[in-house]
Amino acid sequence: MSHANRNYEVLVVDDSPVYLKLVEQVLSSEAYSLLFARNGAEAMKLYEEHSPSIVITDWMMPDFCGFELCQRIRSDDTRPYTYIIVMTSNTEKGNVVKGLEAGADDYLTKPFDPGEMLARIGVGRRIIDLNRELAAKSRRLEEAARTDPLTGLPNRRAIEEWAEKQVRGAARHGFPLWVVLGDIDNFKFINDTFGHDAGDIVLKTFADVLKKNARASDICGRLGGDEFLLVITHVEKGHVEATVNRFREQFAALSFPLQGQSVRVTASFGVTGVHCKEAQEFGMLVRQADQMLYEAKRAGRNLVRVSYPQSIR
To answer: Would you tell me how many other CB atoms lie within 10 Å of the CB of residue 71?
Structure first.
């Protein structure tokens, strides 16, 4: 018996206890996980609770027909794909077309043949497997589209999506939020002197320092090149400079063995904050942090410069 079959939850909908028992006997040997409903309302309740992979439904039910059940299931696009098989009697064959038009994938005629039922559900399983694979691939592609491949950190797109929500939350709930730009001092010199592989090592190490020091409520990511961005929340004005200095000091304390030399590398940071009931534009905050970063560079590098908004001085 294949354990893979245990991943298929099947909802059987029929007001006939006899047919429910027959379906149970056919599918129990295949180790499916079975759910049973006597009417459309019960079926929808179980569907919403369990999101079954496969639904086998009778066409005629006490409250509403299989046509409406198909429509209701197909109208919910928030769940994984459900394969729907409609069961009709020989005299209801005209309803097969209606069922397929409403979103059913296949049909069975009562009284059904057990072998045919298993074969048709086998087709459904293959369709479900394909949809699961496509969904997993889509998730991986979506994750890749938001991730910097070198450091594994979120990229600009991911940071901006997350930060814009946080900026609105900061305005709504009145907590402080800080935008921090950091970049590596003299990075071009490292690349030119020791090569791009050495530069990549420095970038990945800097990313690790940021990642280890960022809390779960913060986000850090790579904008591109040697420029990194952090969004830090719930840190009061008296502590933000010390918080960012911790990143700077930990990175500056490291030594990189490059081409037989022990090389120290530093980074500079520019910080700006917001703490008011009016939502700020995230891009503007990034530009302000960039100005602070420029000031840190101009003042000698390996420094943190903070711009404190009027409302949180």
So the answer is: 15
Domain boundaries, the chain: 3-144, 156-312
Task: Tally the residues of the chain.
Answer: 313
Strands 33-37 and 106-110: unpaired
Q: CB-based contacts of 296: which residues, under 8 Å, 6+ apart?
A: 268, 269, 270, 303, 304, 305
Token representation of residue 305: 């410069």
Other Cβ atoms less than 10 A from the Cβ of 40: the count is 21
What's the rounded Cα separation, in Å, for the pair 179 and 274? 9
Residues 226/203, Cβ–Cβ less than 8 Å: yes
Q: Tell me, what amino acid is at 200? A: D
Contact, 181 vs 163, CB < 8 A?
A: no
The helix or strand, by DSSP H or E, that contains position 57, with its residue range, turns out to be strand 54-58
Q: What is the pLDDT of residues 59-69, one digit of tens each?
A: 888 888 888 99
Fold match flag (3-144 vs 156-312): no
pTM of the model: 0.62
Catalytic residue IDs = 226
156-312 belongs to CATH 3.40.50.300: no
Q: Could you check whether the bond before residue 176 is cis, i.e. omega within 30 degrees of 0?
A: no
Of 3.40.50.2300, 3.40.50.720, 3.90.660.20, 3.60.15.10, the CATH number of 3-144 is 3.40.50.2300
- DSSP structural state of residue 312: G
3-state secondary structure of 153: coil
pLDDT digits (tens, 9 = 90+) for 99-156: 888 899 999 988 889 999 999 999 999 999 999 999 899 888 888 888 999 999 999 8
- CA pair distance 116, 272, nearest whole angstrom: 67
